[in-house]
Amino acid sequence: MDFDYPDGTPVLRGVSLDIPRGFRVALVGPSGAGKSTLLALAERFYEPTAGAVRLHGVDARELPLAVLRGQLGYVEQDAPALAGSLRDNLLLGAPGADDAALLRVLDAVNLCGLVHRTPQGLDAQVGDGGVLLSGGERQRLAIARVLLAAPPLLLLDEPTASLDARNEAALAEAIDSVSVNRTVLVVAHRLSTIVRSDLIVVLEEGRVVARGTHAELVDASPLYRELAGRQLLV
Prior knowledge:
- The protein has one domain: Rossmann fold, CATH 3.40.50.300.
- Helix content is 34%, strand content 17%.
- It has nine helices and ten strands.
- The protein has helices spanning 35-42, 65-70, 86-91, 99-108, 112-117, 135-147, 165-178, 214-220, 222-230, and strands spanning 3-4, 10-12, 24-28, 54-55, 58-59, 72-75, 153-157, 183-187, 199-204, 207-212.
- Helix 6 runs parallel beside helix 7 and helix 8 crosses helix 9.
């Protein structure tokens, strides 16, 4: 698959990925390598210049956008929380969900503590833009909101980019939990959150230059070994 910006600038060249159902796949590489662009193509924010994005074998361009995006759960970097309560934020993803369903997804991302923090429970306020939550709590709340719709494919774009070490670790645990029985495609600069991925794909200048597990790539990919070494993971 290839992708060019409208002005003709090449972004991706010859990228071919086959993601098995139920796998957790991480996209890593230097800034500008094309990682987030791949997520945008999956969402059909853009169309590939050559080749196709296929979902369960079907060209995404053949699916109505509502059908395609109903299969995807997308959580962006610095995902916002809206002013209101925990319940208000969660119900944006599934307006008909009952309290039991809300508690299940909060438990899946290790946020049930928020419910017990105040007598208001699910009606506890999060403040304008989620100011009463930590950055990690806002990210996990965003993932919980997406999970209510039960998408088979979860797309996470740089979920730990702006988090401190404690929140990063909590979010990594949440990703481990929600990855069970679900396909996850995650873009990450911080490799500590993705070392347990089933497959790690290394991109450089719009091309796939290596793929494998963390251990395999440390041995086989100079670029991955450099990235991991900078983060003290080797």
